[in-house]
Amino acid sequence: MEHPYFLFTGEQISELCNVGEDLVRQVRNAPDSPFRYNKCRPEWFTDWMQNHPEYQSGKASPAAPPPSCERCAEAVRKHLRMKPLRNQKNKKTKRISGRLLAGES
């Protein structure tokens, strides 16, 4: 786990684990839900889904395996790479505002 403190919303979990938002909503409302303060890790979600077969889709005749943790972990890494670092953004803004205050262009 690269960023164990980073939690995801239900919408992000549905996108990362390739499941519907309705299913994520049902899991979130379950009594032993892996969601804490409406946020969760993909690993927690997939582990919970593996232990609760009643929440898996019964439409497919062969039992469809739940999304793998490896695939979710790769999606998490990709998602985190897309986010800009706040420190770098703030440093650039401070530098520019300092120049403006000093009268430089």
Summary, kept brief:
The protein has helices at 10-17, 21-29, 42-51, 69-82, 86-102. It is mostly helical.
Task: Provide an overview of this structure.
- This protein is mainly alpha-helical.
- It has one domain.
- It has 5 helices and no strands.
- Helix 3 runs antiparallel to helix 4.
Keywords:
0% strand; mainly alpha; 5 helices; 105 residues
Strand content: under 5%
Uncertain segments = 59-63
What count of helical segments does DSSP give? 5
Helix and strand content put the structural class at mainly alpha
Q: Give the H and E element order.
A: HHHHH
How many strands?
A: 0
Shape: elongated
Could you give a short account of the major beta sheet?
A: none
Percentage of residues assigned to helices: 55-70%
N- to C-terminal separation? Answer: 43 Å
How big is the Rg? 20 Å
Q: How many individual domains?
A: 1
Mean pLDDT: 75
SSE blueprint and pairings:
Blueprint: H1 10-17, H2 21-29, H3 42-51, H4 69-82, H5 86-102
Helix pairs in contact: 1-2, 3-4
